[in-house]
Amino acid sequence: MSELIYSPGLEGVVAGETSISTIADGLRYRGYSIEDLADHATFEETAYLLLYGELPTASERDSFARRLADFAPVDPTLLDIIAKLPLSTPMMDVMRTGCSLLAHWDPETADNSHDANLRKAERLLAQLPVIMAARERLRQGESPIHPDATRSLASNLLWMLRGTEPSERSIKAMDVSLILYAEHEFNASTFTARVICSTLSDLHSSITGAIGALKGALHGGANERVMEVLDEVGSPDKAEAWVRDALARKVRIMGFGHRVYKTGDPRARYLKSLCQQLASETGNKPMEQMAEVIETIVTGEKGLPPNLDWPSARLYHYMELPVDLYTPLFVLSRVVGWSAHVIEQLDNNRLIRPRSRYVGAEARSWKPVAQRG
Ligand code: ACO
């Protein structure tokens, strides 16, 4: 056993091969840089690229959009169950339950073939936004709004949440955030999905488990915690004192640091300028100033650059979205990456079953109950 290598948190361990994305030279999805995709592609084109391996032709793009529109309506019985969950249920738990419930209505849940998994991935991509928006409307005491087949996913999402025409600016901001969140090789939630499907379990189980992993504060849950930090700090003039005190007390500052990006997260760099733009258009410049002070000190003093969750929380705040939708929005996008990984894992599957290093008691003999204690 001693010859086996152990790395806490599996840091630096290569746990599998993938052709879906790489972080070796910036972040690339199937070879395309995220900057190129965020500048030029739509989220739907990016989703197609991740699932099918190539950017769609015009006709592939149109038929993909048509399929997503056809798949979007969610069975009313499922929405009724979602409506009956206790009001106090956090939205990430609603997403996890929603994904699990979708398995019961999917005609191909148990079919683990490559093509069936692509179809199921498309249905999840189309239906999870409908579940999130419906739950949010119900929580606000409003009726759910039906998905509009003529809209893009980003536009539809904002439409179903609010029932008012979203601005072009907010559609673009949402679309870019979904592109940047879509995929990130062997992060904790993706690895969770791969472990689950490696047992030959199904796509819905894998994605449900991945949502559970994403929820944690060290992973996707950080984007909601970032907003708590910014609310707590309150204004640019309080930022320096707050951050110096937090660092002195060894507080973990959400939105900073990354297991693999030690010199900076390219997604955060990209989103920062969009954030600044949206902040000045929406009267939120003071929050950008506050964020800049915190970022300069955390990066300078601790050598911890911001990760994607740092700007994305502000972006969603400027779009006036409720804080507990931030991580669920991450789910709506990352479902694409998770699904692509499940499909890739199953195309060349080997059960993922590592070893542990035993640190417990030496071998000992059975003791009858009267001799214990
Ligand atoms: N604030 C303050 N200190 C930090 C932070 C932070 N955000 N991140 C790491 N550190 C410190 C740790 O306290 C530790 O210090 P020590 O050696 O003095 O004890 C050291 O840096 C190493 O920390 P680890 O947790 O071992 O490093 P790891 O590589 O596991 O960190 C992680 C990665 C978990 C993301 C971490 O940076 C963190 O907790 N960040 C905040 C949560 C966050 O923003 N998560 C989002 C990740 S990106 C995403 O999911 C899109």
TrEMBL record:
A molecular function GO annotation: 2-methylcitrate synthase activity
Pathway note: Carbohydrate metabolism; tricarboxylic acid cycle; isocitrate from oxaloacetate: step 1/2
GO biological processes: carbohydrate metabolic process; tricarboxylic acid cycle
Gene3D superfamilies found in the cross-reference section: Citrate Synthase, domain 1, Cytochrome P450-Terp, domain 2
PROSITE patterns, sorted: CITRATE_SYNTHASE (PS00480)
Catalytic reactions on record: oxaloacetate + acetyl-CoA + H2O = citrate + CoA + H(+); propanoyl-CoA + oxaloacetate + H2O = (2S,3S)-2-methylcitrate + CoA + H(+)
Residues at the catalytic site: H258, D309
Family designation: Belongs to the citrate synthase family.
Protein name per its UniProtKB record: Citrate synthase
Source organism of the structure: Lignipirellula cremea
